[in-house]
Amino acid sequence: MKILVTAASGNIGRKVVDHLLAAGAEDVRALSNHPERAGFPPEVEVARGYLGKVSTLGSAFDGVDRMYLAPVLETVEEVVALAHKAGVRQIVDLSGDEHTDWQPIARAVEGSGVEWTHLYAGEFSENAVGWADQIRAGDVVRDPHPEAANAPVTMDDIARVAATVLLSEGHVGKTYNLTGPQTLTRAEKIRQIGAALGRTLEVVRIPRAEAIQLLEPAMGEFAEWYVDGIGSMVDHPQRASTTVADLTGTATTFAEWAAASVDQFR
Fold first, then answer.
1. DSSP labels for 76-102?
2. What is the pLDDT of residue 36?
């Protein structure tokens, strides 16, 4: 069974490749625009191409049975049409529900005529690196909504789920909502990062406008959307699910992620 991993040099796609190999997959093709940066093992077949530029895809889908589809909105209709034409039997997509910008990916996959499995993921644990500059500068972290709560999921856990689904049966037509194993407030997450560092971090609430200004250098026009999205989780916290552990046997806690990622905050 040939498995194609798209965006295979990206943060999640590269991990999908690794988890497939670790689980014993023997016929993996990696689609990457910059394969030289990814350091793929020699047993991985590499196809150079980018989902966002359909003309580069060439024969990337030829002979593929199942594929992991990374979330690229602009060309998804064309990409899934090519997959269907090439005879791909199942698409495992990373997308989102109707409350997210990623729902068009799920709809396109469902309309492609190819069997599908949706992976819906909320906030990544890795987004906490957004606090790194403040944490490196001192023991005070400014945040607009310290009491907002969600259940962040690691990119590695998403990749493990994707690999599990690609290599096993019984997932066609299913949607998996992926979260971390715990619902935590933003203040709790900051304190857990502090504990990993061996420091006590203080969280200070700041006004919405100041938070947007703080984030704009990195996020541009999306800073306002992000701050307001955080605010929505004050009254509507995200509930943690057991889906990752149910599918793979384990799920990474935020504290475990912080301990493994501690160098990013030093």
1. HHHHHHHHHHHT--EEEEEE--TTSTT
2. 87
Q: CA–CA separation, 62 vs 73, rounded Å? A: 22
Instruction: Output the pLDDT for position 214.
Output: 87
Parts of the chain with a pLDDT under 50: none
Q: Which amino acid is at 127?
A: N
DSSP for residue 69: E
* Burial class for 143, CB neighbours closer than 10 Å (0-12, 13-18, 19+): buried
> Can you give the pTM of this predicted structure?
0.95
Helix axes 222-235, 208-219, angle to 10 degrees: 130
- The answer to whether 162 touches 154, Cβ cutoff 8 Å, is no
* pLDDT score at 99: 87
What domains are there in the chain, each with its CATH number? Answer: 3-121 (3.40.50.720), 125-152+181-238+252-265 (3.90.25.10)
Task: Report the alpha-carbon distance of residue 51 to residue 11 in Å, rounded.
Answer: 15
